[in-house]
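Our preliminary data section would be incomplete without showing what the modeling component actually yields. Below, a chain of 304 amino acids is followed by its predicted structure, encoded as tokens that our downstream tools consume directly.
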Amino acid sequence: MRYFLAALALAGLGACASAPADMTFVALGDVPYGKPSEVYPPYKSLIANVNTADPALVVHVGDTHGHYTCDNAVLDHQRTFLNDFAAPVLYTPGDNEWTDCGSTEVGEFDPLDRLAYIRRSYFKGSRTLGAKPEKVVNQAKKGYPENARLMKGNVGFITVHVVGSNNNFNPSDPKAADEFYARNKANVTWLEESFEAFKDTDAIVVAIHADMFKSLSGFRDGWWPMSPFRDIGITLGKQSSALKKPVLLLYGDSHEHKVFQPFKKYRPYLYAIEVFGHPDIKAIEVGVRPQSSRPFRVEKVFNP
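Predicted structure:
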């Protein structure tokens, strides 16, 4: 299924494009998983291949490692990999970096401690990662420096901290529930503020980690009442319709690359692309053509 969806995306939404894209960027996520001796060499090769293409921006949608450990060393190593990209790198955390750290193969970690460490080490100052970092506007003053935005060309890019593993919503754990409610409120505010800031752009790309479409219920916007993704999903839909310009939701989590419109009838300006993920160590180049009937197209797949 994974390869069929990827082929469909390329055939239907990428390879047939005749006009050059207004801008392109590279996206990846949910890599590298596995033993360093096995996955680091191909990951380094992938980074080198992306650098050869010289993209304007790289977006990593989270899950920079598997479940072996969540110690500082592995988080630091993955940050080094992100800084090996020649382009600026927008990164949003995944669940493997903190939410799922309560139990790993080599011991237990405090998820909130891991989240605090990521915020201190990955989001110093108001800049992207990458060898050539660029300034961003972020939500650091409210305690969420990982929520960031910048413009490339006339396309607005926004990261919003929404992760898999139920977005850390666990009613039986008061600390986790409190964290979720506070971050969820901040995320909605950030998304609304960022759409207002980018109202004059030609298109907007919103990057999160979570696959919010795993269990849709058939509501107009597809969100069941207690979904931990409901607020952000409805806000994104409403903002895209109010903007009346192409909006792309870029995400990972389920490791099945696909390109689609989640609510084509009710939210016609909203598009979605899921990146590849483990076991595929791949990245995609996305072309943005705001005036096209297919405004977001996968132009190329990068392999190691």
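Residues 1-17 have pLDDT under 50 and may be disordered. The longest strand covers residues 144-152. Preliminary results of this kind motivate Aim 1 of the renewal.
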